[in-house]
């Protein structure tokens, strides 16, 4: 029996099992088994060579955004055989890429127009954002259907996912895409759970919690760890987490990424439907026939990019070339800004003068931990180099050895 068949068998068993207090331990063990099998499914097959057609592209710019869509497929019974018929419509990912970046991506009225990863660059607010047009994801992409593994692997390396949906279609597309992405370890619009987990060599399992738990207890935690053959570990719950959160921490390969649901083709639906879709969380409504300024502004806010301008001492700031910082890529402090300029600047910095919205007064004398905001101006003041010679009795330091025994003994005075 293959891995996919074993996963389906366990999912069928979970569907048959009633959810109550008596079966929660059994369901927790089944969830752990499915997570282990999905991890094995993502591993490359043994003996497979690294050759073949490339799919990933080199990272470029200050951020990366991935376009993910769903190509709709109808399955019909023709003469007793199950056949797949492609519907003549698409969500408009290629058209959106061309409109935002100017990069030509083949667009047509049928699905699977895009068969590989097509990159483009968005120039917005003096920054460069890489936009990737990925092939459509179908149901079963987490199992390798329709180049699903390659598409999801590229999505994992992105800073933001734009899930392009057709406003005139049902909500089932959004649920299928979310399910396929979560099956391979992508957690959309979620934060990492506050659970401390560390394996040990000896000592058994140490279980502690600082918050009341309603979804998991110590016994279920032990059973899940034994399923992973972990018998010595330290576990600390800092929040009311679920069984799935604890399994994600044990696996350690989950990617928590922001996602914006983009509903395209709003010009073919009624105003009531547009208002309903726009009020959903993490959603935005657009049309490729109109301008996409609202979409660019939403991408900028979700990625959390911060532009910082450098100012040499006694000169005007350099407003032409900002340093772009991000909380997801390092941080937005003065120390991160110094590392962007040069890696040795942190050691040589005495203090920094910050002008902008993050400063209480302009300019403000700040240290390395000062958090910077968009369009701040930073002037780094370096430490003065100490003079080796010094002057007179105000000499800054001595060249004599530190220990008295190592100093040269003076000749005795003549009698």
TrEMBL record:
Q: Which GO CC annotations does the UniProt entry carry? A: cytoplasm
Q: What's the protein here called?
A: OBG-type G domain-containing protein
Ranges for domain TGS: 304-382
Keyword terms: GTP-binding, Nucleotide-binding
Q: Would you kindly state one Gene Ontology biological process term found in this protein's UniProt entry?
A: cytoplasmic translation
On whether Acyltransferase is a keyword of this UniProt record, the answer is no
Q: Is Cytoplasm among this UniProt entry's keywords?
A: no
Which species expresses this protein natively? Brassica campestris (Field mustard)
All copies of the OBG-type G domain together span 90-308
| UniProt-listed Gene3D superfamilies | 3.10.20.30, 6.10.140.1070
Which Pfam families does this UniProt record tie to the protein? MMR_HSR1, MMR_HSR1_Xtn, TGS
Task: Show the segment(s) annotated as Disordered.
Answer: 382-415
Q: What PROSITE patterns does the record point to?
A: G_OBG, GTP1_OBG, TGS
One GO MF term: GTP binding
Q: Where is the composition biased (Basic and acidic residues)?
A: 382-391, 404-415
